[in-house]
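Kindly go through the entry underneath: sequence plus C-alpha cells. Please state briefly how this chain folds according to its C-alpha cells.
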Amino acid sequence: MTKIDRYILTLFLRTVLVCFCSIAGIFVVFHAFASMEELVKQGKEQGGLLPVMAGYYGPYLLLLFDWTGAIITLMAFLFTVGWLRRTGELTSTLAAGISHGRLLRPMIVASLLIVTVQLFSRELLLPGYRDALTMKAKDITGESEQPVSPQYDKVNRVLIDGRVLIAQARLVKDPSFRLDGDFPGFGDLLLAPTCRWVDADENHSGGYLLEDVQHPENIDELPSVGVGDRPIIYTSRDQTWLAPRQCFFATTVHLNLLQTKQSATRMASVAELIGRVRNPAVHSSLSLQVLMHERIIRPALDFTLILLGLPLVVNRRGRNLFVLIAVAMGTVLAFFMLKTLCGALGGNGYWLSPAMAAWTPLIVLGPLAYVRYRDVQIQ
C-alpha cells in the first residue's frame, strides 16, 4: 500500500463514518424527541438517561448499518472522488499515469470489508437483539406483551396457542395446546396459566414447560407419552426433574415462531432460517423460502450495488456532483425495485420459484456490475 493509497483510504473511511453518523444522528434525535417521556422515566428507574439510550439505540444503530451500509458506501465513493476532483488531486494523479482502476482499488477493497462486516453483524449480532428491536420505547424494560401467532406442530399434531407472549422472558401467558394426536388420558387440551420455552438439555429436547397445569386435572397421575422412543409430553409421575403440577411438551416449534411481528423473522440468522425451512413440524411459506435465499446472496448483491455505481465515480462527462448523486439514487431505486419485484413474484408463486426469485437480481445485475468494474479498470 502506497502513501496515496493510505490517503485515499483514510478519506474514504472518514466519509463513510461521517455519512453513517449523520443518518444515525438524525434517526436518534427525531426518535428520542418523540419518545423522550418514556426514556426519561426509564432513566430514573435504571440509573441515568444515557445508559438507557445506549441500551435502547445501540441495537438500532446495528440495524441501521445493516440497512444502509451499501448505499452509504456508494455515496462515499462519489463524495471522496468528488473531493479529490475539486482539490485537483485527481487530475494530478491521473496525469502521473495512474489509472482510475488503480486509484479506486483501496476504496473497492474497503467496500468489500464493509460488506463483510455487515455480514458478521447480520448473522452474529442482530439475531441476539431481535427482541429488543421489536420493542417500542415504552417497552424498554423487556416485559412488553405481544399477541401470539398460533402454530400447528405437524409432527406431533398439536396446535400451540396462547393469549400473549413476552419474547425476552421466553414466556407465554394462558397457553393452550390442542392435542389432535393420540395422547391417552390427556384429552384434547393442555391448559396452564403460563409456560416457558426451555432449551434442550440432558433430560429432554427443546420445548415448553407448563406451570400449574389446569387441564387435565390429574396431570400428576398420568405417565409420560410419546411416539416410539420419542417422548412428547413429560409428566412428574416418571420424570424426577419435574415438580408437581408441571408438564413439559417437547417440540421443534420454537417460541420465535409464535411471534406475530415479521421483523423477528427478518432478523433471524441464515442458519435459523434454513432450520425453519427444513423443520417438518411447521409450514414454510414461499416468502420465507425467498427470504432465506435472499439472505444467502445478500453480501454479493450489496457488493454488486456498489460496483454498479463505479462509472458515476469516474464521471467522464464532467457532470455536477449533485447530478451524480441523483443518478446514483436512481440506480439504487432501480436495484431495489427489481429485487422487490422478484421477491413478490417468488413469494406469491408467480413465474419464479423462491430460489430463482432471490437469485434473479444477481443473475441480471452481476454481469453488468462486472462489466462496469472492468471498464473502470482500463481507464
Observations:
- Residues 49-86 form the longest helix (38 residues).
- The mean pLDDT is 86.
- Residues 33 and 39 are 10 Å apart (CA to CA).
